[in-house]
Design a protein that fits this description.
By secondary structure, this protein is of the alpha+beta class. The chain is built from 3 helices and 7 strands; from the N terminus they run ααββαβββββ.
Length: about 140
């Protein structure tokens, strides 16, 4: 096993122990495999990240800022209080982001021809509020 792999597994175990200290008290049903499952999840997440960032694609996570107007092309409402509205109705009623639950995932593909194609891979899941309290124009996003 190369040195970097040994270091990686040691780091996963160290960070896993830190996470385990937080997670264990919240678990109602414990099994003998819980720690192994957490460790396997960490390894799988690392492998997915390596796959995501080793290709020609670039990924970006964008969190809509509170007060941003709802945009059905990049957001999905998860607010049960507004589940009876369509996305078009939410836009027409000037719904605004009250809380972003999950980010919008953007993928940008750089082609060999030198062109760049960008698109939304996953919409941001948001909670909403209706009203006219100085909404932002949708360009304000928190990026990671």
């Amino acid at each position: 096993m190369p040195d970097w792999e040994v270091k990686f597994h040691r780091l996963c175990k160290q960070r896993g122990n830190e996470l385990w200290g937080i997670l264990k008290p919240m678990m109602h049903i414990k099994t003998a495999c819980d720690w192994d499952d957490l460790y396997a999840l960490m390894i799988e997440a690392h492998q997915l990240a390596a796959l995501m960032y080793s290709g020609a694609e670039e990924y970006q996570f964008v969190f809509p800022v509170i007060g941003t107007r709802f945009d059905k092309t990049i957001m999905a409402s998860k607010d049960i209080a507004f589940s009876h509205f369509t996305s078009e109705e939410l836009e027409a009623r000037a719904a605004m982001v009250k809380l972003c639950i999950t980010p919008q995932v953007l993928v940008r593909i750089n082609t060999q021809a030198g062109t760049v194609n960008s698109s939304t891979l996953v919409q941001a899941c948001v909670l909403l509020q209706l009203g006219n309290a100085s909404p932002l124009n949708g360009t304000e996003m928190c990026q990671t």
